[in-house]
Amino acid sequence: MSASVSPDTESVVVRRLRAAGCVFAEDEARLLLSEARDAGELAAMVARRVAGDPLEHVLGWAGFCGLRIAVEPGVFVPRQRSELLVREAAALAAPGAVVVDLCCGSGALGVAVASLLGEAELHAADLEPAAVRCASRNVAPFGGHAHQGDLFEALPPRLRGRIGILLSNVPYVPTEEIALMPPEARDHEPRLALDGGTDGLAVLRRVAAAAPGWLAPGGHLLVETSRRQAPGAVETLAGAGLLARVVTSAELDATAVIGTRQS
């Protein structure tokens, strides 16, 4: 639609978005104008965004690691800081590695890693049906499979002891802090994808306890966390028998913990 849009139309969209509190109104307007097929669809998309729907849900996709990742209402939107997990995983993965994206949401992490590796056996898993439906679309071009279930219960038993890269972007927001999150996340993403329990580490503890049995010798578990939670995350992974270390990125304002199963 963008080729036929008048400057007046774009300025109207920008003003509406800015009035609704969108900080990057100009950038968002350009995206909406480029995706809308006609004036009616544009009006509907702008109305949804003004009402507070996440931009990615309105567009139907999120940009992540240079890829377009399909997302839909009720699915966690991948954050740019999670690119740290992708970079670290790609650097650690052996050719043809079994890559699992646990608590996958849209499957963005696994897809991004697979796209960098070029050759991998890719699996994604989540408890939310909408997430699994979305992840199925995203992993399919890479020959991947999406599974529904509670953490490792979702995975095919044949993967036990074979996983080289286990990405698990578990929910790590402490329960009492969810109310402080931006409305786009708090009101439009599943609480299951946000709530990490009292200290934010509840789900991580469950993942860490079972991970050694699923990792291949020398395999790696990569999890995102906050800076203040990193020591607790390291202790959790080490307590499960993994060799744990912290990695950070000032550029992405990101912190992750990597646990390695020793051979």
From TrEMBL:
It is an enzyme of class 2 (transferase). InterPro entries: HemK-like, MeTrfrase_put, N5-glutamine_MTase, SAM-dependent_MTases_sf, Small_mtfrase_dom. It holds the Pfam family MTS. Keywords: Methyltransferase, S-adenosyl-L-methionine, Transferase. This is peptide chain release factor N(5)-glutamine methyltransferase. Residues 69-172 form the Methyltransferase small domain. It comes from Amycolatopsis cynarae. Its EC number is 2.1.1.297. It catalyses: L-glutaminyl-[peptide chain release factor] + S-adenosyl-L-methionine = N(5)-methyl-L-glutaminyl-[peptide chain release factor] + S-adenosyl-L-homocysteine + H(+).
